[in-house]
Amino acid sequence: MIDARTTIGAVTLNVANLERMVAFYREMVGLQVRAQSAHDATIGTASRALLHLNYLPNGRHQPYTCGLYHLALRVPSRTILANWFCHYIRCGSPNWQGASDHGVSEAIYFSDPEGNGIEIYRDCPRTRWQVAADGGITVYAHMLDLPALLRDGDASAWYGMVDETDIGHVHLKVADIKVAKHFYVDTLGFETTTEVAPSALFVAAGVYHHHIGLNTWHSRGAAPAPADARGLACFELMLPCESAQESIVNSLRKVDYHFERYTDRVHVRDPFGIAIVLRVPDA
Predict the structure, then answer these.
(1) What are the mean pLDDT values of the chain's consecutive 10-residue runs (283 residues total)?
(2) Residue 55: is it exposed, middle or buried by C-beta count within 10 angstroms (0-12/13-18/19+)?
(3) Fewest CB atoms within 10 A around its CB: which of 3, 44, 119, 190?
(4) pLDDT at res. 138
(5) In what helix (H) or strand (E) does residue 62 lie, and over which residues does it extend?
């Protein structure tokens, strides 16, 4: 079983227009530019990198391949979510996709200028979470009361994402849920929290609604994204210690699964070609 303290680290995207994407994540989403060159940029909060943007000239748009469904920025309170939403509405709500009350969380969905899905959400108090008899966490998709969220927010109080903001989860497009479950649950050691057979699976490290979502809604039987595709390049799994990293490495070895080991990290691709970086902070 994967260490319960495992979290999602930074997400790396290959982008066609670096300046436009940096401006969007800075001005619309509210992240800070931590570093930037002509070829890449790192954005996040004052203390942590959340996104790496790699300029990929002549990159191809490949929507019907495996890859990113959305990345999910988690904010620490409903007030911050409401203030951000008021800011977003004031800016014209670009690339709007929807909003949901999931019981465990309240979420706003939209996309960046290159079509990468984004969720901004806050977790509801765990006393509200519904746990099924089998131990699974009940997640539903009810309409979020947007007028109430607007009433609770204030665009003038929005000054950007607070330092506690992190990547709460990533949601991936995969070709086959059974194959995904074998890799993420049986091999990496995540626990299944919700399964909607045969099209979706949600898995977590420890007690959480999900750290990784997987679905085939628009990607059943799809091929891996080519190396020159825009969109998801990789995402990080942040492991609390070297022994937790070694535990995953041993699991990969046991099933003779290919990985590449570097001084401070391990690289592996899931069965759908999605790159994962296993990293211990400050290693």
Answers:
(1) 97 98 98 98 97 94 95 98 98 97 97 98 94 82 96 96 98 98 98 93 96 97 96 98 97 98 96 98 72
(2) middle
(3) 3
(4) 87
(5) none
Candidates 32, 46, 31, 28; CA nearest to 155 is 28
User: Which residue type, as a one-letter code, is found at position 103?
Assistant: G
DSSP state of 187: I
How many Å apart are CA 93 and CA 235, to the nearest integer? 27
Tokens of 279: 């990293």
CA angle 30, 7, 212 (to 5 degrees): 85
Q: Is 126 within 8 Å of 39 (Cβ atoms)?
A: no
What is the phi/psi pair of residue 178, to 5°? Answer: -65, -45
